[in-house]
Design brief:
This protein has ten helices and two strands. The chain is an all-alpha fold.
Amino acid sequence: MAPQALIRRSLVDFFRDLVRGAMRTHEVESSEPTEHYLVSLLERFAKPPPGWGSRPLALDYLESLQSTRADRCVKLKHVGDTALFLCGVFMEHLERQIVSTNYYASLGRIAYRQLASLAPTDTAARADVFAEIAARFPDFVRVLSEISFAEIFPGDAQTVRIYTRWLRTRGPQDAQWLLRQGITPFDPGLKTRH
């Protein structure tokens, strides 16, 4: 028996495949730099620094308003990245918290919008990435949610998570997935079906 070949892929390659697959699933298109940014975000959060989520994001945001331009950019990037990651990967966990997903999404969008306006002229491409994420935050939350549901936390609860995500985002791909599973998306608060 021949020894099996060891498959070597970097974490970047792994996350790039996941991001591209989730984008295809949800028919989300983005610029190449934004796709790369999402891959880098997942890579960074694969090994988060100690205590990364121990402090309320609102404090970092408020402190950014009093900081120098460079410190402000660092704090705003932390706020935006953390909000996007939490909304995408831990949406169902946030739904059980006092502070809603909408709060984190709003905070993340504001942080990215401000980052886009603060970016130096020599990094215009980076400003474009931040502007794209701010403008299309819910799309990128759906992409990260797909990765979370399909790859990070798969299991029997996936249907419930996708239904919960559909209730929040009304994504047509989620509705189609639910219909393929024999479930008709229905929001009891609206008394209408998808």
